[in-house]
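Worked Example 4.2. Consider the chain below.
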Amino acid sequence: MLDTSRGHAPAPSDEPRGCLFALSQPPLMIFLGVIGCLLLMAAVHDLFLL
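Applying the procedure from the previous section yields the following structure tokens:
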């Protein structure tokens, strides 16, 4: 049978969120993608056009 008593509060999560949580955020991944594309374009420009 399912225990539905409210006697105990859930334990607070004191664990810090790690790198995988940070990388799962869309704004961070968009930022890293833009920076990566800029670095890739600069590298291709230096290698092939200069």
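Residues 26-49 form the longest helix (24 residues). The CA atoms of residues 15 and 21 lie 12 Å apart. Compare this with Example 4.1 before moving on.
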